[in-house]
C-alpha cells in the first residue's frame, strides 16, 4: 500500500475559516458532554414562534424508543427560509436557476421567492390542501419545485418529492403509500437536451387500480408540450397563480410536526417513506450547512443534487435558505452540452462552493484533464462530495483539476435517514485524507461494532452505528413505525444502525467501506436488490432472479443480475433487452441492469436462502475468494456460474 497522503488544513483558507481545530475539539466535546446545553444554544439560530423550553428528549432503548427535539417549540420552516430574511436580505438572490441550456439562467431574490411561495401556498389551500396532507411533487430541477416545497411547508402540508427519473409505476406506488391526494408536476422536464414526459408519467401512474383518487394535479408549464388533460383534476400553475393573493401567514407548527417524507430503498421490501420533522431538522441542516461549507454571507453555493434526493432537500433548499444563502438550482447534467459544463457554470455565477457526487467526478475524470479547458474555476474555495465513497484517485483529480489544487474537499457521509451530514471534515479545522470522511460533526457519536454488537475500540473495522440521537434524525417510516424500529434499532440494541461498514484508522478517522446490507449504491443512487428482483420476476419468463452490486469504474457500483428462466424459455438477446426494459418500467432508468447472466440455478443454503455473498464474489470476478461453500444445497451450481460468468 502506498503511503497515505495527508492534506493539512489549507493555509489560505484557515484565515477566513469560521473555526479551527481547537474550536472544533472544544465544541465537539461540549456537544457530547451536555447535548441539552449545546443544542439549546444552537437551536436559537432559528426563528421560533413559540420558544422551546425542552431540548433533547430521546431514548434508543428498543421498547421505549422515542426521538423528540425542541418538543414544545413552534415555528414554520418557510418563515425561517424566507420571511425572516426580508428585512436584511430582501433583494439578495436566494436562488440562481441555471437551465439545461447554458444561455438560460435567472436570479430570484428572497422577496420574490417569498411572494411566489405565499401565492402558491394560497393556491394549495384553495385546492383543499390542509395541514398534515401529503402532497406529491414530481418535478424537474426548476424554481417552481422549490416554490412548491416551501409552499407546502408554509401551510403545514407534508411534501413527498419523487425523483423525476422514477417510472410511473414507482411514482404510483409512492402516491399510494403516502395516501397523497395532490400531485404537482410539470408538462415535461428537460435534462441533457432530452425531454422527460413528466405529466404523461403522472397520468399513467394514476391509472393503476391501487392508487387512490387524486383530487388535483397541478401542472407547471416548462416546455409547452402537448399533454393530455383531465378536466376537473388537472389545473395549470400559471393560471392559478395569476389571481392568488400573496398574503399567507405561515402556519405555526410544532417542532415535531412532519415537514416532509422522502422514499428511500432498504435491503428488503418496498421503499420506505422516511419522515422528517420541523424543528430539529432545520437546526441540524442549517448548522451543518454553515460549518461544513464554512458558509459566510455572500458566498455563492452550488449543490448539484436533485430535489428528488435528500441532498436536494437539506443542502439545496432548507439548510442554505435558513442561512440566507444564495443557492443554485441546476436543471442539467455535468456533460451537456459538453464536459466543461460544471466549470462553465462555476465561472458564470462566480461559485464559491461546489458540492457534488463522486460519480460525477469520475465521469469527468474519464474525459481527461482537458475537459475543464476554457474555464478558470478561480472563484471556488471549497469542494464537497456526497452519496458514495470517493476513491483516492478521483479525490486527487477533483482537488487538482477542478479545484486548481487550492480547495479543501469535504467528503460528507450521511443518509436520507440522518437528515444531514454526520461524518465530515470542517474545512478550516480538519486535515484531509483522500477517501476518508474523517471525523464526526457536533453531537454525533459514531461507534464501530462487530457482528455481535460488541463495540470495538481504536484502530479497527466493522459496522457503523451511532450511539445517540441528533436533531436531524428521521422520526419514523411513514405509516409503519414498527418497521422503523426493526430496521434501525433492532440489529445492535441501543444504537442506530446505519447499514454501512466502516474502518477507523490510527487518527480516529472514519473510512466508509460501503453498505453491509442488500442496498446498492449506483451512481450515488440508493436501490434495494429486492426491488430490482421483484421487477425482474414480474416478467412471465423469469422464474427467479438475484441482484448484486459489482465494482464499476464510473458508477461506483453496477447492477449484476442472475436470472433463472421458467422451463422452456430461451435465453435470447431479445429477452435480455426485454428484461432491462421491464426494470426501467417498474422502477426507472436508474435501475437498469448493467449485466444479466443466465443462471440455470442459484446458490442456496439447504433452507433455500440465496447466498448473495457468493454471487457478489462471482460478479466481482473474485471467485478465488468464495469462502465456505459447503453449506450449499448444490455446490455444483457455483462452478456452473463461474464458468459462464458474463462479461462486464
Ligand atoms: C452512502 C445520501 C461513503 C452510504 C446523502 C450511505 C457514502 C448511503 C457517503 C446513503 C460518503 C453517502 N462516503 N459513502 N461520503 N455519503 N454514502 O440515503 O452507503 O441516498 O448509507 O443519502 O450512501 O444514501 P442516501
Automatic annotation (TrEMBL):
Annotated ranges, domain Acetyl-coenzyme A synthetase N-terminal: 24-81
An annotated GO BP: acetyl-CoA biosynthetic process from acetate
Residues in AMP-binding enzyme C-terminal domain copies: 531-609
Molecular function via GO: acetate-CoA ligase activity; AMP binding; ATP binding; metal ion binding
Cofactor or coenzyme needed: Mg(2+)
Translocase keyword on record: no
Pfam families: ACAS_N (PF16177), AMP-binding (PF00501), AMP-binding_C (PF13193)
Residues that, per the record, bind Mg(2+): 537, 539, 542
PTM annotation, UniProt: Acetylated. Deacetylation by the SIR2-homolog deacetylase activates the enzyme.
CDD domains, per database record: ACS
InterPro entries xref list: Ac_CoA_lig, ACAS_N, AMP-bd_C, AMP-bd_C_sf, AMP-binding_CS, AMP-dep_synth/lig_dom, ANL_N_sf
Binding site for CoA: 191-194, 311, 335, 523, 584
Binding site for ATP: 387-389, 411-416, 500, 515, 526
Keyword Ligase appears in the UniProt entry: yes
Sequence positions bearing N6-acetyllysine: 609
Domain AMP-dependent synthetase/ligase: 83-466
Domain of life: Bacteria
Cellular component terms per the entry's GO annotation: cytosol
Catalytic activity: acetate + ATP + CoA = acetyl-CoA + AMP + diphosphate
Family recorded in the similarity comment: Belongs to the ATP-dependent AMP-binding enzyme family.
Function: Catalyzes the conversion of acetate into acetyl-CoA (AcCoA), an essential intermediate at the junction of anabolic and catabolic pathways. AcsA undergoes a two-step reaction. In the first half reaction, AcsA combines acetate with ATP to form acetyl-adenylate (AcAMP) intermediate. In the second half reaction, it can then transfer the acetyl group from AcAMP to the sulfhydryl group of CoA, forming the product AcCoA.
Name this polypeptide is given: Acetyl-coenzyme A synthetase
Lineage: Bacteria, Pseudomonadati, Pseudomonadota, Gammaproteobacteria, Pseudomonadales
Gene, per the UniProt record: acs
Amino acid at each position: 500500500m502506498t503511503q497515505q497522503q495527508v492534506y493539512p488544513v489549507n493555509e489560505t483558507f484557515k484565515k477566513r475559516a469560521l473555526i479551527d481545530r481547537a474550536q472544533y475539539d472544544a465544541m465537539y466535546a461540549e456537544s457530547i458532554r451536555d447535548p441539552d446545553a449545546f443544542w439549546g444554544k444552537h437551536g436559537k439560530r432559528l426563528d421560533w414562534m413559540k420558544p422551546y423550553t425542552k431540548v433533547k428528549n430521546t431514548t434508543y432503548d428498543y421498547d421505549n424508543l422515542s426521538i423528540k427535539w425542541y418538543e414544545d417549540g413552534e415555528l414554520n420552516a418557510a418563515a425561517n427560509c424566507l420571511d425572516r430574511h426580508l428585512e436584511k436580505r430582501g433583494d439578495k438572490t436566494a436562488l440562481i436557476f441555471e437551465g439545461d441550456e447554458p444561455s438560460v439562467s435567472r436570479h430570484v431574490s428572497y422577496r420574490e421567492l417569498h411572494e411566489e411561495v405565499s401565492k402558491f401556498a394560497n393556491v394549495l389551500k384553495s385546492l383543499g390542501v390542509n395541514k398534515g396532507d401529503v402532497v406529491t411533487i414530481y418535478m424537474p430541477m426548476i424554481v417552481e419545485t422549490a416554490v412548491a416545497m416551501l409552499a407546502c411547508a408554509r401551510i403545514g402540508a407534508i411534501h413527498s418529492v419523487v425523483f423525476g427519473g422514477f417510472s410511473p409505476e414507482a411514482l404510483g406506488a409512492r402516491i399510494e403509500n403516502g395516501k397523497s391526494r395532490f400531485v404537482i408536476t410539470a408538462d415535461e422536464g428537460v435534462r441533457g437536451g432530452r425531454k422527460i414526459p413528466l405529466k404523461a408519467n403522472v397520468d399513467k401512474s394514476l391509472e393503476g387500480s391501487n392508487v387512490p383518487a387524486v383530487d388535483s394535479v397541478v401542472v407547471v408549464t416548462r416546455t409547452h408540450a402537448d399533454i393530455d388533460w383531465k378536466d376537473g383534476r388537472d389545473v395549470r400553475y400559471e393560471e392559478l397563480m395569476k389571481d392568488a393573493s400573496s398574503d399567507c401567514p405561515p402556519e405555526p407548527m410544532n417542532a415535531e410536526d412532519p415537514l416532509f417524507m422522502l422514499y428511500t430503498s432498504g435491503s428488503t421490501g418496498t421503499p420506505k417513506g422516511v419522515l422528517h420533522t420541523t424543528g430539529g431538522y432545520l437546526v441540524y441542516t442549517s448548522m451543518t450547512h454553515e460549518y461544513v461549507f464554512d458558509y459566510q454571507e455572500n458566498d455563492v453555493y452550488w449543490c448539484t443534487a436533485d430535489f428528488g434526493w435528500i441532498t436536494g432537500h437539506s443542502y439545496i433548499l432548507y439548510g442554505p435558505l435558513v442561512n440566507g444563502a444564495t443557492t443554485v438550482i441546476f436543471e442539467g447534467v455535468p456533460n451537456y452540452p459538453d464536459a466543461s459544463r460544471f466549470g462553465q457554470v462555476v465561472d458564470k455565477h462566480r461559485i464559491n462552493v461546489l458540492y457534488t457526487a463522486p460519480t460525477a467526478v469520475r465521469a469527468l475524470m474519464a474525459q481527461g484533464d482537458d475537459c475543464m479547458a476554457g474555464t478558470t474555476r478561480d472563484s471556488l474555495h471549497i469542494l464537497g462530495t456526497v452519496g458514495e465513497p470517493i476513491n483516492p484517485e478521483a479525490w486527487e483529480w477533483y482537488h487538482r483539476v477542478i479545484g486548481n489544487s487550492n480547495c479543501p474537499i469535504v467528503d460528507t457521509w450521511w443518509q436520507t435517514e440522518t437528515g444531514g451530514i454526520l461524518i465530515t471534515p470542517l474545512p478550516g479545522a480538519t486535515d484531509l485524507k483522500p477517501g476518508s470522511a474523517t471525523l464526526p460533526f457536533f453531537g454525533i457519536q459514531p461507534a464501530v461494532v462487530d457482528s455481535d454488537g460488541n463495540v470495538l475500540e481504536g484502530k479497527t473495522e466493522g459496522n457503523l452505528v451511532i450511539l445517540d440521537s441528533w436533531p436531524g434524525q428521521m422520526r419514523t417510516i411513514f405509516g409503519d413505525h414498527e418497521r422503523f424500529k426493526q430496521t434501525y434499532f433492532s440489529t445492535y440494541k441501543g444504537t442506530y444502525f446505519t447499514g454501512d461498514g466502516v474502518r477507523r484508522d490510527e487518527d480516529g478517522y472514519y473510512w466508509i467501506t460501503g453498505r453491509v446490507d442488500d442496498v446498492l449504491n449506483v451512481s450515488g443512487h440508493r436501490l434495494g436488490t429486492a426491488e430490482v428482483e421483484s421487477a425482474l420476476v414480474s416478467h412471465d419468463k423469469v422464474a427467479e432472479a438475484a441482484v448484486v452490486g459489482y465494482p464499476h469504474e464510473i458508477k461506483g457500483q453496477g447492477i449484476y443480475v442472475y436470472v433463472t428462466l421458467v422451463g422452456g424459455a430461451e435465453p435470447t438477446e431479445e429477452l435480455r433487452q426485454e428484461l432491462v426494459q421491464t426494470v426501467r418500467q417498474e422502477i426507472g432508468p436508474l435501475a437498469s441492469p448493467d449485466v444479466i447472466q443466465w443462471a440455470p440455478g442459484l446458490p442456496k443454503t439447504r433452507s433455500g436462502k440465496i447466498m448473495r455473498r457468493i454471487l457478489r464474489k462471482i460478479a466481482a470476478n473474485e471467485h478465488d475468494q468464495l469462502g465456505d461453500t459447503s453449506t450449499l444445497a448444490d455446490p455444483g451450481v457455483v462452478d456452473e456460474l463461474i464458468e459462464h460468468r458474463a462479461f462486464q
